[in-house]
């Protein structure tokens, strides 16, 4: 056998010697933390005491690997002699060596042919990026060029927009109404030239899906004007009052033709400043575009009304002259057809609230109303109605925790509450429980409606107390079973009446 130097060596059995990669310099191929020497020459070591050695050097951007056979007892230039004696593994694990020129790493192995071809680097080696093939650098650079160009173009476009946007004419937006706190008494503020001082009023509001309520106008302060003169919505008459807000019938300036203003009637819920949380919650519910439904009250807009004396918050809704269902049932008796139609409207409105998709299949967040009662249903006509008053509504968002739902409190109106709510036995881990409570409340409303239907024979009168006295919840609990029994009896009577009506109709036609 001959060594790579060409000198004759002793003849040994091939099994007693080690085959090693032997190149003075080769460019490695690397992937992850493994590199291959890329050396095409293989040599048999001269002595059975020699091991396979690889030396990895990085100088500037150049990476080269030197492979050889070497006796660990013989010093090797630039390598710690003690380190060579420790290379007894079958794998060539790279070890860092100090070097005055660039970076140097060494590995040695024995007991396996060409074991110095596969170089194993530590994953934590900070200079490992230098092990990658230089072609990878080119690929990375080419990949980053489009991204850099996009960033440059986007930055230039944004800069151009910020510089030039003040020169563009502002687009007029429809205004729901204008609100301004008018100072009372005192002279009109004037500037140094004696002219009235004009100020830009910029009331910034959220866009609640249907109307843009931002207002930017130049308005003169005039102490002789009443506040309503500055509004395109004028409050006419208070038509209702709840625990959180007053409900007013109002006129909204709709159009102007021939010097004559035309108005349309709207309903305005006026919240005092202390009920800001309720106003904000109802606004957040209405701001969801997926909530729009024929059997939910139509939302027109919302506005914060600044004032030097009393801060108020407005919610503008569609107005229905028949009022709420409670007042309607008090003064009216409904037919079977009207009962079915009105009950269907309530059920469809509640089903849309509880659903996680719209009728078109668009995903939405389910909402629990939590205060369904006859006074929270507005009557459009004798066969159509809609749910209203979402001040206590709760979005059943899956991201909320049990604690979030627990902190929402036990809310609602006692006579419409489900027994588990009154007894504080609601399973807060089950979102369906909130929907079930709404369904129970809806059933109580349907019972009220059925008691005022002409097909049941005896028409019950409905009397509602304006305020609940102390111990109301306890009395409701005590009479709950009686109410449920009466409800079942009423439903049975309605069923019998319907069957009788059907038979009489079929006999008359035959």
Automatic annotation (TrEMBL):
It holds the Pfam family ecTbetaR2. GO terms for molecular function: ATP binding; metal ion binding; transforming growth factor beta receptor activity, type II. InterPro entries: Kinase-like_dom_sf, Prot_kinase_dom, Protein_kinase_ATP_BS, Ser/Thr_kinase_AS, Snake_toxin-like_sf, TGFB_receptor, Transforming_GF_b_rcpt_2_ecto. Keywords: ATP-binding, Growth regulation, Kinase, Membrane, Nucleotide-binding, Receptor, Serine/threonine-protein kinase, Signal, Transferase, Transmembrane, Transmembrane helix. It is found in: Membrane raft; Membrane. Gene3D superfamilies: CD59, Phosphorylase Kinase, domain 1, Transferase(Phosphotransferase) domain 1. Its EC number is 2.7.11.30. ATP binds at residue 269. It is a single-pass type I membrane protein. GO terms for biological process: cellular response to growth factor stimulus; heart development. The keyword Methyltransferase does not apply. GO terms for cellular component: membrane raft; plasma membrane; receptor complex. The chain crosses the membrane at residues 136-161. Residues 233-510 form the Protein kinase domain. It comes from the Eukaryota. SUPFAM superfamilies: Protein kinase-like (PK-like), Snake toxin-like. PANTHER family: TGF-BETA RECEPTOR TYPE-2, TRANSFORMING GROWTH FACTOR-BETA RECEPTOR TYPE I AND II. Belongs to the protein kinase superfamily. TKL Ser/Thr protein kinase family. TGFB receptor subfamily. This is TGF-beta receptor type-2. It comes from Cyprinodon variegatus (Sheepshead minnow).
């Amino acid at each position: 056998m001959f060594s790579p130097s060409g000198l004759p060596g002793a003849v040994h059995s091939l099994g007693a010697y080690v085959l090693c990669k032997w190149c003075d310099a080769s460019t490695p191929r690397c992937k992850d933390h493994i590199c291959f020497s890329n050396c095409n020459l293989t040599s048999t070591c001269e002595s059975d005491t020699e091991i396979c050695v690889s030396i990895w050097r990085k100088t500037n951007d150049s990476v080269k690997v030197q492979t050889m056979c070497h006796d660990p007892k013989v010093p090797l230039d630039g390598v710690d002699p003690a380190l060579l004696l420790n290379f007894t593994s079958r794998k060539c694990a790279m070890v860092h060596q100090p070097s005055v020129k660039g970076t140097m790493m060494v590995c040695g192995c024995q007991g396996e042919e060409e074991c110095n071809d596969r170089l194993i680097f530590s994953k934590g080696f900070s200079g490992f990026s230098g092990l990658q093939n230089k072609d990878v650098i080119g690929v990375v650079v080419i990949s980053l060029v489009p991204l850099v160009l996009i960033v440059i173009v986007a930055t230039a476009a944004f800069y151009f927009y910020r510089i030039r946007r003040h020169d563009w004419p502002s687009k007029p937006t429809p205004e729901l109404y204008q609100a301004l706190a008018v100072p009372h008494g005192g002279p009109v503020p004037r500037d140094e030239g004696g002219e009235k001082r004009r100020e830009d009023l910029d009331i910034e509001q959220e866009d609640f899906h249907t109307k843009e309520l931002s207002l930017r106008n130049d308005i003169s302060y005039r102490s002789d004007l009443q506040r309503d003169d500055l509004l395109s919505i004028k409050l006419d008459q208070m038509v209702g009052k709840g625990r959180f807000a007053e409900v007013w019938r109002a006129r909204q300036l709709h159009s102007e033709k021939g010097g004559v203003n035309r108005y349309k009637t709207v309903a305005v819920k006026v919240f005092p400043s202390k009920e800001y949380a309720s106003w904000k919650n109802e606004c957040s519910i209405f701001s969801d575009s997926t909530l729009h439904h024929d059997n939910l009250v139509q939302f027109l807009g919302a506005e914060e009304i600044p004032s030097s004396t009393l801060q108020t918050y407005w919610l503008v809704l569609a107005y229905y002259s028949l009022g709420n269902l409670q007042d309607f049932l008090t003064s009216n008796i409904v037919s079977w057809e009207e009962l079915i139609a009105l009950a269907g409207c309530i059920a469809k409105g509640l089903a849309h609230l509880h659903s996680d998709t719209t009728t078109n299949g668009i995903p939405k967040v389910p909402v629990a109303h939590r205060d369904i009662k006859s006074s929270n249903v507005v009557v459009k006509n004798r066969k159509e109605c809609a749910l209203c008053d979402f001040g206590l509504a709760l979005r059943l968002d899956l991201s909320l925790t049990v604690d979030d739902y627990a902190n929402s409190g036990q809310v609602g109106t006692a006579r419409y509450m489900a027994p588990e709510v009154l007894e504080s036995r609601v399973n807060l881990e089950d979102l369906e429980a909130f929907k079930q409570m709404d369904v129970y409340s809806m059933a109580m409303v349907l019972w009220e409606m059925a008691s005022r239907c002409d097909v049941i024979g005896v028409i019950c009168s409905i009397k509602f107390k304006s305020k609940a006295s102390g111990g109301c919840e306890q009395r409701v609990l005590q009479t709950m079973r009686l109410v449920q029994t009466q409800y079942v009896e009423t439903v049975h009577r309605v069923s019998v009446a319907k069957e009788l009506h059907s038979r009489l109709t079929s006999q008359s036609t035959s």
